[in-house]
Amino acid sequence: MNKPTDVQPNGQRIPNGMLQDNYPRNMWWVAAHADEVTTKPLARWLLETPVVLYRLEDGSPAALYDRCPHRWAPLSEGHVAGDRIVCPYHGMEFDTGGNCTKAPTQKIMPKTAQIPSFPVREAGAYIWIWMGDPEAIDGEPPDVSYQVDPDWSFVHGYYEVAANWVLIRENVLDLTHIAFLHKNTFKQDDWITAPDTYMEGETVCYEQEFDLAPLSPLFCAGMGLPEDKPIKRVQKGRMPSLAISFSDWNVHDPNPEPGRRADFIMRGCHIVTPSTRGHTHYFWAAAFDVPEISDEVAAKTKASVTAAFDEDKHLLERLQDKIAKDPRGLDYLEVTLGADGAGIKVRQILNKKLAAEGRSL
Ligand code: FES
Ligand SMILES: [Fe+2]
């Protein structure tokens, strides 16, 4: 019998940092859906850091380290007063730069009464955060304006997944698993060949055309298409940043009913943000280039997509658990297939970003 490490001559050493902190700091990550962030402070672990997110009374978002420098109370248990957040324990107040502006029992603030603050941006449907060196900010978050475009309908959801973020990122860039893992949910069993993958600048892309076949029932309701009608499909994926990727289902109905549209897009959006060690925030969205789908269609789409993504969560959590417990762990080589083109580019980009921060997998 082959020894585990001898099995695959073209294998690579993986989990490639899946068990450790493999998170680049100098990039925009999504901290929360915009609706989650209000004047009531929100506690969230991001990149193994406790963060409090809140809005000032003028509506602008802010983020601070969620630990008061006095006796370490979580500021997320406090409240917002104007443009300051007030500690729940002894009432120290902090501005958005993390500077203490008031300590109720004394006039002079200790110089050390300061906490880290994080740059944030509101873009599309999400609040983005920069956890690294603010001097290294080299641009704005990716363009996600379609998420708030009234010509699009936007259905979204959230999971906390007990798996490293790279496992989810690779999962959503290799959709050949749809024909197998999701055979009873997506029911799109024609995705059994590898797409073309290529780079457009810094963006990882894939593209693939499919012959006439019924569309996955997950998306028929949003487009108003019958579930058994053969349609043409072009699948296009883009990953403009390690934090976010899109999978566009470009649908063409060759025989539309009179007065009906022939072409539709469903844009899947997959956002990952590392949380605590071995856990990831996964924000997903399904958007149709159809204005104002009904609440009933939105609810149906959300329920069916959730049923499918439950399958990914289950599998990836088992996978992570196996990696963590298997004594062969990091020495067990992983085989690469043709369908892993986009996933390999993810690892290359990740390695490059970590190297720029003086780190490696
Ligand atoms: S712990 Fe925050 S003011 Fe004392
Ligand atoms: Fe999946």
Automatic annotation (TrEMBL):
InterPro entries: Cholesterol_7-desaturase, Rieske_2Fe-2S, Rieske_2Fe-2S_sf, VanA_C_cat. PROSITE patterns: RIESKE (PS51296). Pfam families: Rieske, VanA_C. Residues 28-129 form the Rieske domain. It comes from the Bacteria. One of its GO terms (molecular function) is dioxygenase activity. Keywords: 2Fe-2S, Dioxygenase, Iron, Iron-sulfur, Metal-binding, Oxidoreductase. PANTHER family: 3-KETOSTEROID-9-ALPHA-MONOOXYGENASE, OXYGENASE COMPONENT, IRON-SULFUR DOMAIN CONTAINING PROTEIN. This is Aromatic ring-hydroxylating dioxygenase subunit alpha.
